[in-house]
What we know:
With about 350 residues, the chain is an alpha/beta fold. It has two domains: about 1-165 and about 335-350, 3-Layer(aba) Sandwich (Rossmann fold); about 165-330, Glycogen Phosphorylase B (Rossmann fold, 3-Layer(aba) Sandwich), CATH 3.40.50.2000. The protein contains 13 helices and 13 strands. A seven-stranded parallel sheet has the order 3-2-1-4-5-6-7, sandwiched between helices. A six-stranded parallel sheet has the order 10-9-8-11-12-13, with helices on both faces. Strand 12 (about 275-280), helix 10 (about 285-290) and strand 13 (about 295-300) form a beta-alpha-beta unit. The protein is globular, with a radius of gyration of 20 Å.
Amino acid sequence: MNIVFRVDSSTEIGVGHLMRCLTLAGEFQNKNHKVTFICRELQGNIINLIRHKVISLLVNSDFWSDDLYLGLLGATQEQDAEQVIKVMPKNTDLLIVDNYALDEMWHKKLRQYTDKIIVIDDLANKKFDCDILLNQNLGSQVESYKGKVPNNCELLLGCDYALLRPEFKKLRERALEKRKNTKKIKNILISMGGSDIKNTTYDILQQLDSNFNVVVVLGRASPHNSMIENYVKNKNIEVIINADNMAELMLEADLSIGASGSTNWERLCLGLPSLVFTVAENQIKFARILDGLGLIRLIGHAGESGVTNVVRDSILSIDDLSAWSERCFNSCSYDGASKVVKIITNKSALLT
Length: 352
């Protein structure tokens, strides 16, 4: 199949959408399918990390919208659809869309240019015209999409379909052994996402005891990198910009402090106890579900006054790392991407 992904990354959008699409693209490539990405050149994008064919869309600097997600798209849906139609391969079999701004209006415009459409969603807040819809979040339900997708749309819902990169699956057995014997927090990993606009990382560092070994992961697009790097001089803190070994870093850590989002599934896969901040309103619902199940400890929303002051107390109150890790291991599938590719491939063959 010839497969096209329409997905963006930026300082404001973050990198999670693109990273999970890259995971899915890797699985397709392993099955000898041809992959193309169409991405808009938004500020702080990580298009350079894509190792597949990439077609870039220019940003309309004059565009503005008071709609949150359209504003992040950098164009109207009509403009975006027209631009995609002009550049997408003529023989596209499958179009995979991971963008909160695009709904059934956009999908309908692209229908005649692809055989099938797949939507990756988290919000269930609009109508979609697609053949398969994937929502990997724990607690996502069929009822949420009633009347929002065609009757013949197949729904892939829940963390059994979490799009985890293969390196996490590879290290899972080692993590299982390591966590059994981890009783005390020595190594802490801090990762507030690709941009950390509100500089929550700096606030967290103020709360940590100097006895911990701390690794801080920052995105190249983060506006506060220089400040963090200056702060950690002569401290037992390592700063890594654009880490390409997150699975290894999570394996080495005893505790993670970081942003909610797709990376929740990575931490759960490796049984890593986590203190979590939400960084976007749409993350709050599912973060609360994970917190209620004892899989993460939700600290609060990044940027809220006084939120980071509870980090130290939260660390001190952790009493059983092994039990926490065991809950994490039991909660998350580590083979979601291959399951999704198998279902998509089978459905595409049936519908051809």
